[in-house]
From TrEMBL:
GO terms for biological process: carbohydrate metabolic process. Keywords: NAD. This is 6-phospho-alpha-glucosidase. InterPro entries: Glyco_hydro_4, NAD(P)-bd_dom_sf. It comes from Enterococcus faecium. It holds the Pfam family Glyco_hydro_4. GO terms for molecular function: hydrolase activity, hydrolyzing O-glycosyl compounds.
């Protein structure tokens, strides 16, 4: 059995968050989770996404140990895999940038 992972979503208040979480949950066998962490500098948006994702988890009856909506920044990445999706505005163009981290599934 593979070790359960902790996923931290930086920018967790984004409207992309439910889709990101759904994609992660659809691959639960390949990436077992113990915890999902949402972090966003906009606490109100983060709380909105927290409620939406909490509903998604309850509806699908996923067995995730913990779901953290807010935390101290120093603990954000502790023992976690970071996922970040952001848009950068440069010269009136919006450039999509996604950070990807390769996981060792052995």
């Amino acid at each position: 059995m593979m070790k359960k992972q902790i996923i931290t979503i930086a920018g967790g208040g984004s409207t992309y968050t439910p889709g990101i979480v759904q994609a992660i949950l659809n691959n639960e066998k390949r990436l077992p989770l113990s915890e999902i962490r949402l972090y966003d500098i906009d606490e109100e948006r983060n709380m909105d996404m927290y409620l939406i994702v909490k509903f998604m988890l309850k509806k699908k009856v996923f067995q995730i140990f913990a779901f953290v909506q807010r935390m101290i920044q120093s603990l954000l990445l502790q023992d976690a895999i970071l996922f970040s999706h952001k848009f950068v505005l440069e010269d009136w163009r919006c450039e999509k940038r996604t950070k990807r981290f390769h996981l060792n599934m052995d």
